C-alpha cells in the first residue's frame, strides 16, 4: 500500500516537472514561427549563416557529395559519335524528395533509347546554392550532345535558375562551359511560389525516414541537406522568385510546363446540378456552383502547387493532367497505371529529339 502511494506521488511529481518543459518548448516554437512569418529575409539569412558555420566546423560531415548527392547516370546511351544519338536527359528532383520520383519515367526513357542522368542535391539549402552545385558539376556530363532538363516541383526552379543565370543567360556570356541546354520541361513547378513550403518540416521527416541504403545516415543527415532556406525561397513573393521571374528566358531554349489538377466535379454532382437547373430553372445558380467548384480546383491545383503558380510570363500555357503532385510522375502502388504525365514528357522529348 505504501509502495503504491509513493509510486503514484513520484509519477505525479515527475509529470508536473515535465509539463513546464513541454510548455516552454511549445511557446518557443510558436514564438519562432511568429517571428519567421513576419521576417522572411532575416530568417533566410539566419538559416544560411547556420549552414555556413556548420560547413566550416564539420567540412567532411557536411559535404554533400557523399555517394548519394551528385550527378548519377541512370541509363547509359548509345555509343559516342553515333549520328542517331538523342539529346541527353537530366532529371532534377524537388524539395525533400526521398527517392523514387523518377523511377517510372527512367524506365520508359530507357526503353525509348534516351540516355538519362539525375541530379541529386542538398535540397533544403537555398535554391541558388543547389543551382550553383549543378553548375559546378555540369562539366561532369559529356558535351558532345545537348541536354534536355526535366525538373519536378522545386527542381524546376533549379533548372530555370541554371539556364538563365549560368548556361544561357540572355545578353550575357555563359558562366559555365559544357553541353548546351536543348530544352526544358517543368512538372508541377511552383514558378510563383507555394504556401505549402511552410510545412517543410513534415517533408523533412518523410525524406529521412525513407528506406534507401544509398543515403549516408547520421545525426547530420537532415542538416547535410541544408537548414531550410529553400522553404523561404519557395514562398510567394520571395526575393529568389522575384529575381528569377525578372530574368528573360532565352529564345533558343524551348520550355514545356506540365501541371496537375487534383479535383474534378464528380458525376453525381454534375447530374444533381443539371437536375436543379431543369426542375427550378435556376441556371444562374448552377453556373455559380460550377464556377465555385472550378475555382476550388484551381486553388488546390495538384494539392501542392496551385494552377496560377505554374505559369511563367511569356511561356506557353501549362498542359494540365488529372493527378496529384507526385502522382503525375510516380505510382502510389506497383500495380497502378502509368503516371499520366509520363506519356506527355516522352512525346515532347521525341519531338525535340528530331534534328
TrEMBL record:
Pfam families per UniProt: Abhydrolase_6
Residue spans crossing the bilayer: 12-35
Keywords noted in UniProt: Hydrolase, Membrane, Transmembrane, Transmembrane helix
Keyword Transmembrane tagged: yes
Gene Ontology molecular-function annotations: hydrolase activity
Keyword Transmembrane helix in annotation: yes
Segments forming domain AB hydrolase-1: 89-264
PANTHER family reported for this sequence: SLL1969 PROTEIN
Protein name (database record): Alpha/beta fold hydrolase
Provenance organism: Thioalkalicoccus limnaeus
Amino acid at each position: 500500500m505504501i509502495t503504491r502511494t509513493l509510486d503514484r506521488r513520484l509519477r505525479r511529481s515527475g509529470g508536473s516537472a515535465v509539463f513546464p518543459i513541454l510548455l516552454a518548448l511549445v511557446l518557443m516554437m510558436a514564438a519562432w514561427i511568429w517571428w519567421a512569418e513576419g521576417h522572411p529575409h532575416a530568417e533566410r539569412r539566419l538559416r544560411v549563416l547556420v549552414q555556413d558555420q556548420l560547413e566550416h566546423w564539420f567540412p567532411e560531415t557536411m559535404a554533400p557529395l557523399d555517394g548519394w548527392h551528385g550527378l548519377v547516370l541512370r541509363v547509359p546511351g548509345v555509343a559516342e559519335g553515333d549520328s542517331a544519338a538523342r539529346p541527353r536527359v537530366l532529371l532534377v528532383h524537388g524539395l525533400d524528395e526521398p527517392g523514387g520520383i523518377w523511377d517510372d519515367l527512367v524506365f520508359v526513357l530507357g526503353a525509348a533509347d534516351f540516355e538519362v542522368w539525375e541530379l541529386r542535391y542538398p535540397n533544403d539549402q537555398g535554391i541558388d546554392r543547389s543551382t550553383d552545385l549543378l553548375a559546378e558539376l555540369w562539366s561532369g556530363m559529356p558535351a558532345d550532345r545537348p541536354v534536355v532538363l526535366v525538373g519536378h516541383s522545386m527542381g524546376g526552379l533549379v533548372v530555370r535558375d541554371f539556364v538563365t543565370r549560368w548556361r544561357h543567360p540572355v545578353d550575357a556570356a555563359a558562366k559555365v562551359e559544357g553541353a548546351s541546354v536543348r530544352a526544358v520541361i517543368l512538372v508541377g513547378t511552383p514558378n510563383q511560389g507555394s504556401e505549402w513550403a511552410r510545412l517543410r518540416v513534415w517533408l523533412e521527416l518523410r525524406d529521412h525516414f525513407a528506406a534507401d541504403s544509398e543515403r549516408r545516415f547520421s545525426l547530420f543527415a537532415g542538416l547535410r541537406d541544408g537548414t531550410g532556406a529553400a522553404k523561404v525561397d519557395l514562398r510567394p513573393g520571395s526575393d529568389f522568385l522575384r529575381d528569377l521571374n525578372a530574368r528573360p528566358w532565352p529564345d533558343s531554349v524551348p520550355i514545356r510546363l506540365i501541371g496537375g489538377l487534383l479535383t474534378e466535379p464528380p458525376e453525381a454532382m454534375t447530374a444533381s446540378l443539371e437536375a436543379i437547373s431543369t426542375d427550378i430553372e435556376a441556371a444562374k445558380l448552377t453556373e455559380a456552383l460550377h464556377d465555385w467548384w472550378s475555382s476550388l480546383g484551381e486553388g488546390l491545383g495538384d494539392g501542392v502547387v496551385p494552377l496560377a503558380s505554374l505559369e511563367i510570363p511569356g511561356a506557353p500555357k501549362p498542359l494540365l493532367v488529372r493527378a496529384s503532385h507526385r502522382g503525375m510522375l510516380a505510382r502510389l502502388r506497383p500495380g497502378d497505371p502509368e503516371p499520366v504525365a509520363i506519356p506527355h514528357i516522352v512525346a515532347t522529348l521525341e519531338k525535340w529529339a528530331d534534328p
